[in-house]
Design a protein that fits this description.
It is built from 13 helices and 14 strands. The chain is an alpha/beta fold. It folds into two domains: 3-66, no CATH class; 81-324, P-loop containing nucleotide triphosphate hydrolases (Rossmann fold). β3 (87-96) and β4 form a beta hairpin. α1 (3-17) packs parallel to α2. It is globular, with a radius of gyration of 21 Å. The chain starts with a helix and ends with a helix. The model has no long low-confidence stretch (mean pLDDT 89).
């Protein structure tokens, strides 16, 4: 069980001992099993069932939430090593203030590199440096052996990088704009003919991204703020994948989404790696991180403390101990 679940469980026990009734709303299975006595499953605004928690398996709960079976979403599937032979990204001595300190690593084509660490370890700051959001004090990045300029996001995009930010609402979306507009924001240069944007081509491209990523929206012109958290996250992922990046950096990609969307996002990550892309996944959700990562970097105080092949991490507890430096 992770630290968050332990904290909630301890608080729940204290409240219950005072005679307080708790209604706990969550799609985190470890917390639900630790805290709840009974469970009510809602789907599409309707109550599907109410049962004692012990009467239902995890698979039944997930199927009830999603409306279909989700098999093996959190199971690591080892892929062919030959697909990951080429060094795609080579980061050398990246330093930015005190949060990123002399970080060096390589990412191979077709590899999913997980990054784990406690809050303040430098995970998000590293992602922002790689995408040119925050300036580097020193160090360099090479793509397929060629040094690239990542001094701002536009240059990082040109170099073939894309970033799915940690906070989709504040950093990944323009909430008052439509789904269509959000999907097309990083793609406008490809739709421009002189000073004119090809509106018809833009609508067709938005529709194709909506269909490809299963974004549930009745009208592409609907404000993106009205979508569920999971569908908002799909919009953020879809718009950046539309730029055809070679390296995709995802910061907390499954935070705040239901387990159905979570499984879809993990499948997208696997498919990108299978297609030869390099993928960096930053997450505090260790089950998800272990489900997709081929290798995990552990950051501590802005430095790489451990570089662990996936087969050297037998379970979530082992990763927690590595992150805590035990």
């Amino acid at each position: 069980m992770n630290t968050r679940a332990r904290t909630f469980a301890a608080a729940a026990v204290a409240l219950l001992s005072c005679g307080i009734i708790i209604i706990y709303i969550s799609h985190r299975m470890d917390e639900v099993y630790r805290i709840a006595d009974r469970i009510t499953i809602l789907r599409d605004g309707r109550r599907l069932l109410t049962e004692p928690l012990g009467a239902l398996s995890t698979e039944q709960i997930v199927e009830g939430i999603v409306g279909r079976a989700v098999d093996g979403a959190l199971t690591y599937r080892e892929r062919t090593p030959a697909a990951r032979s080429e060094v795609l990204l080579d980061a050398r001595g990246l330093t930015a203030g005190t949060r990123v300190r002399d970080v060096s690593f390589q990412l191979n084509a077709g590899e999913i590199l997980g990054i784990a660490g406690l809050m303040g370890s430098g995970r998000t700051e590293l992602a922002r440096c790689l995408f040119g959001v925050d300036p580097l004090d020193s160090g360099e990045v090479r793509i397929r052996g060629r040094r690239v300029d990542i001094t701002n996001p536009r240059k990082a995009i040109r170099a073939g990088l894309a970033l799915i930010p940690e906070d989709r609402r504040a950093q990944g979306l323009v909430l008052e704009h439509s789904v269509r507009s959000n999907l097309l924001l990083p793609l406008l240069p490809s739709l421009r003919h002189g000073l004119v944007i090809d509106d018809r081509a833009g609508s067709a491209l938005a529709d194709s991204l909506i269909e490809r990523f299963g974004i549930k929206v009745a009208d592409r012109n609907r404000p993106v703020r009205l979508l569920s958290g999971g569908n908002q996250q799909k919009v953020v992922i879809a718009k950046w994948l539309g730029t055809q990046p070679n390296v995709l950096i995802l910061d907390e990609p499954t935070a705040g989404v239901d387990i159905g969307t979570k499984s879809e996002i993990l499948e997208v990550i696997r498919q990108l790696a299978d297609d030869g892309k390099g993928v960096i996944v930053i997450s505090s959700e260790y089950p998800e991180l272990l489900a997709v990562s081929d290798r995990v970097l552990v950051l501590r105080d802005g430095r790489i403390a451990r570089d662990l092949p996936r087969h050297d991490i037998p379970d979530e507890e082992s990763l927690q101990l590595a992150v805590q430096g035990v």
